[in-house]
Structures are given as C-alpha cells and as structure tokens.
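Structure first, sequence second, as always.
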C-alpha cells in the first residue's frame, strides 16, 4: 500500500446482481465503524436497490459520505492518487466481474476496481450468480490471480441464524474484516 489515509476510506460499488442488502448493510456498518465511504452504484445497481429494498438513489446515496455518478470517469476514485484503503463490490454482477477481470475500466466502478488492483490494495468482490458458467469461473480466477478476493455471499449455518438479517450480518462482518476494518465483528468458531 503506497498511501495510507489517517481514517479508513473504503470505496463501495453496488451493481445489478441480486443481494442489494449486502451493499446497503456494508455502507451502514462502515459508517458505524467510523470509515469514510465512497459509493459508486451502477444504473442496474440502483434499479435493484429500489426493487429489493424500496430505496431510491437519493436514499442510497445518503448512506455514503460521497457518492459518484458511474459515468464520471474523471472522479477522484478513478485515480491511484486517491488514498483509499480498500474497495468492495457488493453485490457484484457477472458483467462487472468480467469488466474487472479484463481491466476494461469502462465506467467509474470498474475503473476504481482497476485502480485498487494496480495499487495493490484490497479488493473484495461479492460475486453473485448461480449456477456459474465457464466465463464466470475464469473471470473469478483472473481476479484472484491479480490479488483480488472473490467472496460470494454464501451463508454459513453453523452459527444457527434465525433471520435473514443474521445471515446477512454474519457475511458482512466477515467482509469488513477482510477490508481491514478494525471494529469488524466476525463470529469465530469455537469448536464443537
Ligand atoms: C432483478 C434482477 C436480478 C439480477 N440478478 C443478477 C445476479 O444475481 N447476478 C448477475 O450477474 N446479474 C444479475 N442481474 C443482471 C444484471 O443486472 C445485468 O447483467 C446488468 O447489466 C449488470 O450491470 P452492472 O454490473 O453495471 O450493474 C439481475 C438483473 C435483475 C433485473
């Protein structure tokens, strides 16, 4: 990591895969832990946030410290000189996964991810599709080879979740931990 911000600065991408709640809950938790959040949501991401959670673009953007237009490739987060700590895409569609895997940088979201990889900062992609085709699998391999972390939001049941919130929160705390957030609260397994 070349640059280190005094306060953690996390770029959050939201795309049009199902699971908008992961992105929203991450924004809420990052704020609660004192991280500075920089949001870029694709048009399909905004569509799904509205469809799944009833939040419009304004309500979504109000959860972040700064929100960017995905077409604004001249924004601060498009440059490695912007001292972000890490980036997460939650949820991450197969289209955006493909763009990141191939270094397309065709919008601000995929450009910010490209920058995160080139600066050797932590990039977590909460990829969501099922089943996977070979292109999806190859693209996940490519991102892994570049140092990114593929983190599909697959719930664990050994902590006996009782609600959807329990499932989502468990996953989100593990992602926060991967992003280097000091106050992350992933549940640890104490053994049977
Ligand atoms: C309700 C809904 C659910 C979707 N779920 C997924 C999904 O789980 N995974 C995925 O890769 N694409 C999914 N898509 C398709 C993407 O939204 C679409 O490929 C879009 O072009 C992605 O663009 P983006 O990556 O710029 O957000 C879904 C679309 C809709 C409308």
């Amino acid at each position: 990591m070349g640059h280190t911000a005094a306060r953690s600065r996390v770029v959050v991408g939201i795309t049009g895969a199902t699971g908008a709640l992961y992105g929203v809950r991450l924004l809420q938790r990052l704020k609660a832990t004192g991280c500075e959040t920089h949001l870029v949501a694709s048009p399909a991401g905004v569509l799904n946030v509205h469809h799944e959670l009833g939040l419009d673009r304004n309500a979504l953007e109000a959860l972040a410290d700064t929100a960017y237009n995905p077409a604004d490739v001249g924004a601060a987060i498009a440059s490695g000189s912007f001292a972000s700590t890490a980036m997460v895409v939650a949820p991450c569609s197969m289209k955006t996964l493909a763009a990141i895997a191939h270094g397309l940088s065709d919008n601000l979201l995929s450009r910010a991810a490209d920058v995160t990889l080139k600066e050797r900062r932590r990039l977590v992609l909460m990829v969501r599709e099922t089943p996977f085709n070979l292109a999806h699998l190859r693209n996940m391999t490519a991102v892994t080879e570049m140092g990114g972390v593929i983190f599909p939001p697959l719930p664990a049941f050994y902590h006996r979740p009782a609600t959807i919130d329990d499932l989502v929160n468990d996953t989100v705390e593990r992602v926060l931990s991967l992003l280097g957030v000091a106050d992350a609260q992933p549940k640890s397994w104490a053994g049977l």
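Margin note: The first strand starts at residue 9 and ends at 14.
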